[in-house]
Amino acid sequence: MPVSTIARRVQDHTRARGVLPVLADCASWGLRWAAGRPGAGRPSPATFTHEGVERPYFRHPYHYTWLNERAVEVPLAETVLDEVVLAGHDPARVLEVGNVLGHYRPVTHTVVDKYEQAPGVRNVDVVDLDPATTGPFDLVLALSTLEHVGFDEEPKDPGKPAAAVAVLTSLLAPGGRLFCTFPVGYNPALDEALRTDRLGFTRRTALRRTGRDNRWEQVPLDDVWGVAYDWLLYTAHAVVVAELQR
Questions:
Q1: 20 to 30 Å CA-CA from 46: which of 11, 87, 133, 134?
Q2: Cα(first)–Cα(last) distance of the chain, in Å?
Q3: Three-state DSSP class for 230?
Q4: Planar angle of CA 159, 161, 165, nearest 5 degrees
Q5: CA quadruple 100, 101, 107, 110: dihedral positive or negative?
Q6: Phi/psi at 168 (nearest 5 deg)?
Q7: Whole-angstrom Cα distance, residue 74 to residue 55?
Q8: How far apart are the C-alpha atoms of 177 and 141, rounded to whole Å?
């Protein structure tokens, strides 16, 4: 992220909240970054539980995952991806929307990302994916990506995330699975669509951060609606895990 963007964000929060609270948050973040950096890339001894399964938190230097929702999103996605690989599915029948996992592990599956330039990544808008020429896929992944669709674009389109989910569903093979994570509070229109179950997902679960040490626990869905997104540190305090089985 450009330094100018970070500086503007800090200035905006300082005007809204005051100097001392913003300095305190930034100092706390810096201390936690320094404390966690030596362990980045090593297995975490701490764990979280989702749907009765205990998993270690994910620690990696890219995007300092020990400080944000990537600590739980990546282990959950890796479990789903590894299940498909172990079942003998062709990696070409796996699609990831948003170039996320490739920063943390070698990937052989198809990756599309509208903006990020990287080897093997197709730069295409998710809503422009055509079932006639793309897929079918046994697994489609989207980690903290679809909340940007239609929201961080001009002109804004509150209905575009729903259109993206419909397109991705159409790309699934019979029995295929769509697995998405969404940071709560980032895109209010998308949160409302998830809350009212308008997107067609067959299972929705939620994780909520329990403190500054980036520990997470599974909670009922109703406990996360209205949880604020931290726009200063660009971090979620709650995540919805949404899945669809075709």
A1: 87
A2: 37
A3: strand
A4: 120
A5: negative
A6: -65, -35
A7: 11
A8: 9
* Residue given tokens 């808008």 in the structure block: 125
Residue for token pair 């197709």? 122
Task: Assess contact for 161 and 148: CB atoms under 8 A.
Answer: no
In our burial notation (b when 16+ CB lie closer than 10 A, e otherwise), range 66-86 reads: bbbbbbbbbbbbbeebeebee
Give the number of other CB atoms < 10 A from CB of residue 141.
Answer: 27
Q: From 140, 157, 139, select the one nearest 149 (Cα to Cα).
A: 157
Is this structure's pTM higher than 0.85?
yes
Segments of the chain with pLDDT less than 70: 1-4
Q: Which of 244, 245, 239, 246 is nearest to 75 (CA)?
A: 239
The answer to whether 190 and 153 have CB atoms below 8 angstroms apart is no
Per-residue pLDDT tens digits for 220-244: 999 999 999 999 999 999 999 999 9
Q: Write out the two tokens for 60.
A: 């990696």
State the Cα angle at 89 between 81 and 149, rounded to 5°.
Answer: 45
CB 181 within 8 A of CB 143: yes
